[in-house]
Design a protein that fits this description.
Elements lengths: L1 E9 L2 E10 L7 H69 L5 H36 L1
Antiparallel strand pairs: 1-2
Helix pairs in contact: 1-2
C-alpha cells in the first residue's frame, strides 16, 4: 500500500494539490523465486568463503607454530652455547690484548665476532617474541 500527497506549482497555475492512494499486487512470482535462488547461492558462497577463511587461519596457525619451534631451538642454542662462547672469547681476547699477545686488529676482530653473536641472539629473541605474539593473536 502507498499513500502520497503532492503540491505543485506550474507557472502560471498554482494550487495543484493532490492525494494519491495505491495498492500493488504481484502478477508474476518469478522475481521472488529468482531472489530466493540468489539468496541460496549467496548463502552457499558465504559458506565456502567462511570455510576457506577457516582453512587459511588453520594454515597460518600451523605455520606460526612450526616457526616458533624453530626459533625456540635457535634461542636454546644461543642460551646454552653461543652466548657462553662469546663471553669466553671476549675475556680471552681482552686478556691476550692486555698481555700484549695479540695486536689491536685481532682484538677488534674478536670483539666484532662477539658483537655479531650477541646481535644474533637479540634478533632471535625479537623474532621469537614477534612470532609468539602473532600466534597469540591468531589463536584467541
Amino acid at each position: 500500500f502507498s499513500i502520497g500527497y503532492v503540491r505543485q506549482k506550474i507557472a502560471p497555475l498554482t494550487g495543484l494539490n493532490s492525494w494519491m492512494v495505491g495498492a500493488s499486487f504481484p502478477i508474476l512470482f518469478f522475481p521472488q523465486r529468482s531472489r530466493a535462488r540468489q539468496a541460496r547461492i549467496a548463502m552457499q558462497a558465504a559458506g565456502w568463503e567462511a570455510e576457506a577463511n577457516r582453512q587459511q587461519l588453520s594454515n597460518k596457525v600451523s605455520e606460526l607454530q612450526s616457526q616458533l619451534a624453530r626459533q625456540r631451538e635457535r634461542l636454546t642454542y644461543y642460551q646454552q652455547a653461543a652466548i657462553k662462547e662469546a663471553e669466553a672469547l671476549q675475556q680471552s681476547a681482552t686478556q691476550k690484548f692486555q698481555e700484549n699477545e695479540t695486536d689491536i686488529s685481532e682484538f677488534i676482530q674478536s670483539l666484532n665476532t662477539v658483537r655479531e653473536i650477541k646481535r644474533g641472539y637479540i634478533e632471535t629473541v625479537y623474532a621469537y617474541n614477534v612470532t609468539l605474539l602473532e600466534l597469540e593473536l591468531y589463536t584467541e
